[in-house]
Amino acid sequence: MTMEEIELVTIANYLRPESLSEAYELNQKKANRVLGGMMWLRLCSPRIQNAIDLSGLDLDYIKETEEAFEIGAMCSLRSLETHPGLETYFRGAIKESVRHIVGVQFRNQATVGGSIYGRFGFSDVLTCLLALDTEVVLVHAGKMTLAEFADRKRDRDILEKIIIKKDGRRVVYLSQRATKTDFPVAACAVSKKEDTWYVSVGARPAKAELAVIHGEPAETLGEKAVADMKFGSNMRGSAEYREAIAKVLVRRAANAVLEES
Ligand SMILES: Cc1cc2nc3c(=O)[nH]c(=O)nc-3n(C[C@H](O)[C@H](O)[C@H](O)COP(=O)(O)OP(=O)(O)OC[C@H]3O[C@@H](n4cnc5c(N)ncnc54)[C@H](O)[C@@H]3O)c2cc1C
């Protein structure tokens, strides 16, 4: 592709709201667009009438309390990757889910808000957080589980923050890529609390889906988890290949969870 063929993003007006409610009101117009890190937006939205920049709203934070981690929408993927509290509590699983995404400079730009709001099929971030007790907080619709949010139709709400509860589950994240830093061909996160497994499988290539399974041995968890999931084909792999890989990843992740426990 030559420079002449690349369509650069054009923004007619730049808006910097002073509150989340103002940002929400501005976002109700179809021609307006919320900006996260703009890493995806600049590739798929060449013309934006009014760009709504959330960076003046203090949404770039990770707050750790006794019960949970609260992560603001403008927190970068790199902050997620390097936060010592997240690393310790989830034993590197969240770091593992983001460390393959393009490169450090890219992850310094891409945000948690854009990654979750996008609900991308290839999303490592969505896949990982679905297997944890994660909630999202939206300006208009309020609080809901990440699984509910992932199933919702797209609307013009604004994601303010996510909350990951410290509910004691052990979690392991694994993905398979054809080449380093490419989109995943298959991705999974497996967590366990008491007798219950939470298995999230992403890059099918549809967006991540969660299976909640009780009392299954790790060896057969992969078969069981994907039994009701649909897999598809694209240039990165066939449905059959993805399903076979996903089963193996789930089994490996489940065994790793048991070893950690
Ligand atoms: C080349 C490339 C490779 C990638 N590879 C991977 C990969 O391997 N794995 C992976 O998981 N991800 C991958 N991604 C996705 C990336 O990690 C981010 O998820 C993506 O760029 C969106 O984040 P952003 O901050 O750039 O959001 P933006 O591009 O700014 O926004 C994305 C969408 O979300 C909306 N939005 C942003 N913030 C909010 C908010 N707070 N509330 C409501 N709506 C909002 C925007 O209006 C837009 O529609 C890749 C992206 C690119 C461009």
TrEMBL record:
<keyword id="KW-0560">Oxidoreductase</keyword>
<dbReference type="InterPro" id="IPR005107">
    <property type="entry name" value="CO_DH_flav_C"/>
</dbReference>
<dbReference type="InterPro" id="IPR036318">
    <property type="entry name" value="FAD-bd_PCMH-like_sf"/>
</dbReference>
<dbReference type="Pfam" id="PF00941">
    <property type="entry name" value="FAD_binding_5"/>
</dbReference>
<dbReference type="InterPro" id="IPR016166">
    <property type="entry name" value="FAD-bd_PCMH"/>
</dbReference>
<dbReference type="GO" id="GO:0016491">
    <property type="term" value="F:oxidoreductase activity"/>
</dbReference>
<feature type="domain" description="FAD-binding PCMH-type">
    <location>
        <begin position="6"/>
        <end position="169"/>
    </location>
</feature>
<keyword id="KW-0285">Flavoprotein</keyword>
<dbReference type="InterPro" id="IPR002346">
    <property type="entry name" value="Mopterin_DH_FAD-bd"/>
</dbReference>
<dbReference type="GO" id="GO:0071949">
    <property type="term" value="F:FAD binding"/>
</dbReference>
<dbReference type="InterPro" id="IPR016169">
    <property type="entry name" value="FAD-bd_PCMH_sub2"/>
</dbReference>
<dbReference type="InterPro" id="IPR036683">
    <property type="entry name" value="CO_DH_flav_C_dom_sf"/>
</dbReference>
<dbReference type="InterPro" id="IPR051312">
    <property type="entry name" value="Diverse_Substr_Oxidored"/>
</dbReference>
<protein>
    <submittedName>
        <fullName>Selenate reductase, FAD-binding subunit</fullName>
    </submittedName>
</protein>
